[in-house]
Amino acid sequence: MTPPFATMAPDDFEAGLAALDHAGTRRSRRVVQAIDGARLRVDGQWLLSFSSNDYLGLSQHPAAVEAAQRAAAQYGVGAGASPLVNGHSAAHEALERELADFVGLPRALYFGAGYLANVGVVPALVGRGDAVFSDALNHACLIDGARLARAAIHVYSHNDVALLDRLLGASTARRKLVLTDAVFSMDGDIAPVPQLLDLCERHDALLLIDDAHGFGVLGPQGRGTAAHFGVRSPRLIYMATLGKAAGVAGAFVAGPAAAVEWLLQRSRTYIFATAAPAMIIEALRANLRVIETQSWRREHLGLLNEQLRDGLAGLPWQLLPSSTAIQPIIVGGNQAVLEAAAALRAQGLWVPAIRPPTVPPGLARLRISLSAAHSQADVAQLVTALQAVAAA
Questions:
Q1: Quick one: average pLDDT of 24-45?
Q2: Where are the alpha helices (H) located in 255-312, listed in sequence order?
Q3: Element (H, E) at 40
């Protein structure tokens, strides 16, 4: 295994990169020059993209673009300081109120990114002498937040409510915090939030759910996974990102007013980070209204999901069970999934190949992300191409 960069001598970097190449796990960036709906100009080539988390097709919405332009003229393009100095504008204040109202919780706090939110919130909620209970498939930001908290970490098997019950019951920690993705980013399945919340009620624990891939898509009017299940509790801390279905950038955490005030006072990634520009905030406010009023986007996304799954029913690869916009196809080996992604790209389709360490070894996959920006013809094109690549 390649040692951490912190312990590597200068000559070790080339060797480390060569090892990544040999394992098929070295990553590369693509340069996107233009966007037209679900089509991107990538390294000079127009591609039909199934790689984006822009689930509702809002990243190019005219209302958001216009709102950002107006805010740039009013506020400028930078916030100038952290929120607790002078970076918290009237736009930020309004967005936090609107987000709290949207998810039906007393108060919300905006962060510059989902990663910043989780690695700041978890250590603010628990510390030494406390215990964190984390789903085995949680996103890296929840894992890193738990590590930074320096609490005892207990990992339970994916969505294993019975095991979590036993772990919580055996814990003597002064404070207990359960962490879970709401929609798991690589499998597309949904956490059993009602059962998790019931366990937290019985074992005197808090539940933090990361709804990065459910906010805007699940629940009435896209109000998220908690609304999808109809659950409410003072033990629930709700986090969601705003760069996916909301189409812009950032994240927020919502919950009881006192809990959110505590996070404002103790989350280092909030306190010590420059606030997001108001132009970003106003674009979010515009898109939040679109999410609330344009239900056809979620309905269309559901139809595309059914079309895709019906079309891939006979595929020799494993299509994971998912009712969300994330549709993963397990290919297996790193080289095999890279070759499949390259074959799709040769046909003008961008479907990302996901490899370790993002997913376990041997479970490399094509991760299809559907969007309301896709048409039925787009999905039909993808189905035909996948069938051809799988049969080759």
A1: 88
A2: 257-266, 268-271, 278-293, 296-311
A3: strand 39-42
- Split at pLDDT 50, 70, 90, the class of 4 is low
Q: Which structure tokens are listed for 20?
A: 């990544």
d(CA 177, CA 125): 8
Alpha-carbon distance of 116 to 353, in angstroms, equals: 25
CB 254 within 8 A of CB 99: yes
What's the predicted TM-score (pTM) here? 0.93
Q: How many CB atoms lie within 10 A of CB 184?
A: 25
CA–chain centroid gap for 208, Å, is 14
Q: Give the right CATH number for 62-293 from 3.30.1490.20, 3.40.640.10, 2.60.40.420, 3.40.50.620.
A: 3.40.640.10
pLDDT in tens, 171-211: 999 999 999 999 999 999 999 999 999 999 999 999 999 99
The pLDDT of residue 1: 43
C-alpha angle with apex 56: 235 to 64, nearest 5 degrees? 95
The number of residues in the chain equals 392
